[in-house]
Amino acid sequence: xxxxxxxxxxxxxxxxxxxxxxxxxxxxxxxxxxxxxxxxxxxxxxxxxxxxxxxxxxxxxxxxxxxxxxxxxxxxxxxxxxxxxxxxxxxxxxxxxxxxxxxxxxxxxxxxxxxxxxxxxxxxxxxxxxxxxxxxxxxxxxxxxxxxxxxxxxxxxxxxxxxxxxxxxxxxxxxxxxxxxxxxxxxxxxxxxxxxxxxxxxxxxxxxxxxxxxxxxxxxxxxxxxxxxxxxxxxxxxxxxxxxxxxxxxxxxxxxxxxxxxxxxxxxxxxxxxxxxxxxxxxxxxxxxxxxxxxxxxxxxxxxxxxxxxxxxxxxxxxxxxxxxxxxxxxxxxxxxx
Length: 338
Known about the structure:
Shape: globular
Strand content: 15-25%
Order of helices and strands: EEEHEHHHEEEHHHHEEHEEHH
Low-confidence stretches: 333-338
Oligomer: single chain
Largest sheet: 7 strands, mixed
């Protein structure tokens, strides 16, 4: 059967959100866009149309393609012989979900091309198997704010909610990279009973603050499990995080770092100005964002999955074909992120 080509869009994410280690994640409005196209002779399997991803694999070992193939193998369908074209606004190894977005993009695109009827829970389970943790792939797939855990039977349980409408995220992004594997290697093996109790209480406080149930208390929003160990090996990130909290800003180490993300009030909040000064002093780039509520979606090349027409603003195919200057990146300068 001829392939009906599609394009997909997947948001950036920030995981942990302070005290929600491996459990909380939130979607941000910068995206990875991927589209399938016919295979050309001697062409790379994956073509990146932006400078920020210049060093990523372009053959069958590419993470988007490997995830694409994993879906087909899981559901016993032939792997479509296509090429993938991509453009990303998400910098690599900055704790903003670049790997998770690649996994979700491959799975979502494979589902669309194969036309296999697979729901979000099944897709999320497969994405978690490939990534290892649901707190990044969850918001990448579903959008919004997600909380992940396992039930007594060991089954993955994910719940999604919209963040409070009065909040907006601000990212402070450094130029240097930090591999997740290296950041995970420094984590402590255990916590004391007292620290566990504090961690649980803080996680509940952060969840309520981000959903608008109550105002955040910055002094009760930090983490005792992963942040202390990680910031010891990330000097600039430690200074940025400490300075933000001293200024009364609700901020956290994004994923495994080194980026720091903050949630500030939409109106009348001076935190954004404080963050600009902090970013400038420490050589970070401040990026004002919004929460992504849509998550991953796929559109066929000849139609629109959202608006039903051919002129939809968030069209993923259009994002793939846009120039880097027109699209922008999470920090605005792709060259600086190589």
